[in-house]
Amino acid sequence: MVLCFLSVTLQLARRSSSPLGRQLCSASANKPVLTLFTKKPCPLCDEAKEVLEPYKGRFILQEVDITLPENSAWYDKYKYDIPVFHLNGKFLMKHHVDIQKFEDKLTKLELQNDGSQ
């Protein structure tokens, strides 16, 4: 599974003069970003990622470890709720994957992206 830490990686890629940086930016620019707020260990997070496996080519997965010091605000917010998912920066679901909700929102974003090209 490809993990892309967009908050830093894509910002750097967009500013990059290297071919790899520009390629990373253009390859992922149109895919929705699914952010998973997690910690180690998290068996429910592992289960959720397995459920999402068939969709992995349609989004970029960004994992945020809420136990890291720089993520303390997320820890305070989600410490009792992981896994928590945001899609393109907006809350989507928590505790488990609601596959119908996920697929509906993902399809809607894909249609929006297709229309804007």
UniProtKB/TrEMBL annotation:
Keywords, alphabetical: Electron transport, Transport
Pfam families for this protein: Glrx-like
Xref: Gene3D superfamilies: Glutaredoxin
Family: Belongs to the glutaredoxin family.
Record protein name field: Glutaredoxin-like protein
